[in-house]
Amino acid sequence: MLDDAALDLIFRKARTRNGWAATPVSEDQIRALYELVKWGPTTANSTPARFVWIRSEEAKKRLEPHLSPGNRAKTMQAPLVAIVGYDLDFPEKLPRLFPHDQTARTWFPDGPHREVTALRNSSLQGAYLIVAVRALGLDAGPMSGFDHAGVDREFFEGTRIRSNFLCAIGHGSEENLYPRSPRLDFEEACRIL
After folding, report:
1. In the structure, what pLDDT confidence band is assigned to residue 176 with cuts at 50, 70 and 90?
2. Between 112-135 and 27-37, two packed helices, what is the crossing angle to 10 degrees?
3. Mean of pLDDT values over 177-189
4. Residues 23-34: what's their mean pLDDT?
5. Is the pLDDT of residue 84 over 90?
């Protein structure tokens, strides 16, 4: 079991950041993040998330016009931004990822069931990313305020990958850090049957 310090780092004291120190995020750190994220469970080990790591100024300039005005400055300041996408062609990899049942690729015919499965499981993988970011001593700023169609054209053209959400990553600053917002109590959000 993790101790209180680790739980504080990952959950209780972690904050969604809106300001960033200029400290870069290295390729080794990016690879370490993915090496943790890939072990999180998904439906039939489908792992439909696809990540684009926006680190260079050139790549940030490509992303910038697709950001909502309220997210633009803080995202451009972040040392790294992950585009968390989902691949609608994820069943093609199931023979390798789910080897004990070679029929798995047929479980997700093209259509709404495949799309919902891809979106749900890439959301799980995106959540694993946020936990991994915090566990490795970095901060996260997840967001959904952007033009999905624009990001998809810019970064996923010619593929069946669609954007889910963005996550700014780095060493957060206190800049624009709002007071901690409340959460629902157990009785408001849960039932034990």
Report:
1. confident
2. 120
3. 92
4. 98
5. yes
Q: What is the pLDDT of residue 61?
A: 98
Query: Domain ranges in the chain?
Result: 23-173
Query: Which residue from 6, 1, 23, 2 is spatially nearest to 134, judged by alpha carbons?
Result: 6
111's tokens:
């259509």
In the structure encoding, which two tokens stand for residue 153, read together?
A: 């054209």
Q: What percentage of the chain reaches a pLDDT higher than 90?
A: 96
Question: Could you tell me which CATH number the domain at 23-173 has?
Answer: 3.40.109.10
Neighbours of 70 (CB within 10 A): 11
Tell me if 168 sits within 8 A of 19, measured CB to CB: no
Host H or E run for residue 83: strand 80-87
Q: Residue 105 CB: number of other CB atoms within 10 A? A: 18
How does DSSP classify residue 172?
Answer: B
The 3-state DSSP class for residue 153 equals helix
Query: Which has the closest alpha carbon to 54: 46, 40, 42, 66?
Result: 66
- Number of neighbouring beta carbons within 10 Å of residue 145: 13
**Those residues with Cβ within 8 angstroms of residue 120's Cβ, 6 or more apart along the chain or in another chain:** 43
Q: Please give the single-letter amino acid code of residue 172.
A: G
Two tokens, residue 73: 């400055």
pLDDT tens for each residue of 95-113 = 999 999 999 999 999 999 9
Tokens standing for residue 35: 């090496």
